[in-house]
Amino acid sequence: MTDISDILIILFILIGAFFSVVTAIGLIRLPDIYSRTHAASKSATLGVMCILIGTLIFFLTEEGFFNSRIVLGIFFVLITAPVGGHLISRAAYNAGVKLWDKSIQDDLAKKEQFEKEKEGSRY
Amino acid sequence: MLDIVVSIALIAVVLSMIGIVYRVIKGPSTADRVIALDSLGISLISVIGLVSILLRTSVFLEVILLLGILAFIGTVAFSKFIEKGEIIQRDRHK
């Protein structure tokens, strides 16, 4: 039994460490802030959740009961990390940070320009 | 076996934190720095999970929750400051 739990812990921890490294590579190499937010919010969330699941299984076999603090931590990270990524990329767009110069389509700018023209024609 | 794997994962996570610090220093806009600091806090959560496996103690697990909450509040406050210029609004009916 201990061997199976060890294998599970090792698997989850290695997956989590891999996704942490992927987060760092994405934050360094991606071109603009929106793609960097994409890398940071998704893969960092998955990596830390895998590592915390490994910790949960470790303490489940070590102490023999379900450690509710880790479950709360997993749940909280799952809820809040994508919300944080959304908020910061929205704030960057409203503050006027430019997209990557090779990006093709910007529908939000088109929508804002359309609404501005509609306001102008009304008055 | 488990200790070796946890040490390797700890080294990998710390190296990725160093990579994220590069983005905090270099990042062209403020939002880049904020998103890098947010993922730095999330990496710190996984460091604490790995260290509590290495030390075989469960007394550090409150720190996980605390760091998650603090990273989220910091990100929300910074994004509101970038967007509106103030964090807690004085006049709501604007």
From TrEMBL, chain A:
The protein, known as: Na+/H+ antiporter subunit G
InterPro entries, sorted: PhaG_MnhG_YufB
Cellular component GO terms, alphabetical: membrane
Matches recorded under Pfam families: PhaG_MnhG_YufB
Entry keyword set: Antiport, Membrane, Transmembrane, Transmembrane helix, Transport
Keyword Transport: yes
Subcellular compartments: Membrane
Gene Ontology molecular function terms on file: sodium:proton antiporter activity
Listed transmembrane segments: 6-28, 40-60, 66-88
Organism: Jeotgalibacillus proteolyticus
Lipid bilayer topology: Multi-pass membrane protein
Family: Belongs to the CPA3 antiporters (TC 2.A.63) subunit G family.
TrEMBL record, chain B:
Alphabetized GO MF terms: sodium:proton antiporter activity
Primary localization class, coarse: membrane
InterPro entries with a match to the protein in the record: MrpF/PhaF-like
Topological category with respect to the lipid bilayer: Multi-pass membrane protein
Any single Gene Ontology cellular-component annotation: plasma membrane
Transmembrane segments annotated in the record for this chain: 6-25, 34-54, 60-82
Protein location: Cell membrane
Domain of life where this protein originates: Bacteria
Keywords recorded for this protein, A-Z: Antiport, Cell membrane, Ion transport, Membrane, Transmembrane, Transmembrane helix, Transport
Family the UniProt entry places it in: Belongs to the CPA3 antiporters (TC 2.A.63) subunit F family.
NCBIfam families: PRK12600.1
Record protein name field: Na(+)/H(+) antiporter subunit F
Natural source organism: Jeotgalibacillus proteolyticus
